[in-house]
Amino acid sequence: MKRYNDYDVFAWLYNRELGWYSSIIFPFLKIIAGDNLPDGARILDLCCGTGHLAKILCENDYHVTGIDGSAKMLQYARRNAPAAKFFLGDARSFKLSAEFDAVFSTFDSLNHVMTLTELERVFKNVYTCLNKGGIFIFDMNMQEHFETRMKEGINSIFEKPKYLYIMRTEYDEERKLGKYTVTIFQSEDKFWKRSDIVLYQTWYPLENIVFSLGKTGFTAIKTHAFTHQRELQEVNENSDRVFFYGQKP
Ligand SMILES: C[S@@+](CC[C@H](N)C(=O)[O-])C[C@H]1O[C@@H](n2cnc3c(N)ncnc32)[C@H](O)[C@@H]1O
Fold first, then answer.
1. Mean pLDDT of 177-189
2. Pairing of strands 63-68, 42-46
3. Confidence of residue 153 (pLDDT cuts 50, 70, 90)
4. Is 222 in the pocket of ligand 1 (CB under 6 A)?
């Protein structure tokens, strides 16, 4: 299986513009984890990106390991969170023995896993690397997100003094395929360097995700909708982002 590395070209911009999500969701990860995240826990940040969450976790005295498929994202992660350990790897195929108290995978990283069979492989790998009682928390974009925000098309230009970038979305309903296109112009001397990035995501019905978590062996499975007002709520058919929680018995 080819390692997922679609974020390599995006890493420079992601590091500047998109790390903010981690500081927003860290308190919610703690609320969802409750008493099952001991002080000093060993945490695996799966699909850790540029290490913004890893940095916050290290600052809160957790022992952090990060895995990501993009070597470029990891270059920033190593700088942002020097106290964490980072490995280049794929969520669908990594193998680590049972050594973690928690695995987090945030900012809809697992929507990049394009089939349910592959998502179940991710769940199995996570399950294997958790200690007994260890917890898994991840968030995913749901059908509602694809059929509203992605379909209507996010179409924005962001202009900064030294660079500008354009973000667009499209949604192919038949294939359940969301497409993000990002074009970056970076000022280099008298020239503008152009980079083009295309990223894909898909979604899974909540019942399928919960069923697959249970099939893998996770218990105490819970779901929470995360609203645009940044609140956790009960999931309903309008929920566009959902946090999933499962525990290894
Ligand atoms: C939206 S970013 C989220 C990064 C980070 N978790 C955060 O909250 O900022 C998605 C990340 O998932 C990684 N990723 C996606 N699919 C992956 C896979 N199969 N294996 C490893 N990393 C993957 C990408 O390289 C990217 O860094």
1. 93
2. parallel
3. confident
4. no
| Structural element, H or E, at residue 16 | helix 11-17
Number of domain units in the chain: 2
37 and 75 together in one domain? yes
Q: How far are the Cα atoms of 151, 223, 226 from residue 236, in angstroms, in the given order?
A: 20, 10, 11
Q: How far is ligand 1, taken at its centre, from the CA of residue 47, in Å? A: 4
User: Within this chain, do residues 84 and 131 fall inside the same structural domain, yes or no?
Assistant: yes
Judge if 17 and 104 occupy the same domain.
yes
Q: Is the pLDDT of residue 161 over 90?
A: no
- Give the pLDDT confidence of 27-50 residue by residue, as tens digits: 999 999 999 999 999 999 999 999
State which of 3, 6, 7 you would mutate to test the pocket of ligand 1, scoring each by most atoms of that ligand within 8 A of its C-beta: 7
19 CA: nearest ligand 1 atom: 9
Position 24 in a domain: yes
| 61 C-alpha to ligand 1 centroid (Å) | 23
Confidence of residue 60 (pLDDT cuts 50, 70, 90): very high
- Distance between CA atoms of 169 and 111, rounded to whole angstroms? 15
Residue 45 inside a domain? The answer is yes
Domain that holds residue 178: 144-201
CB of residue 7 inside a 6 A radius of ligand 1: yes
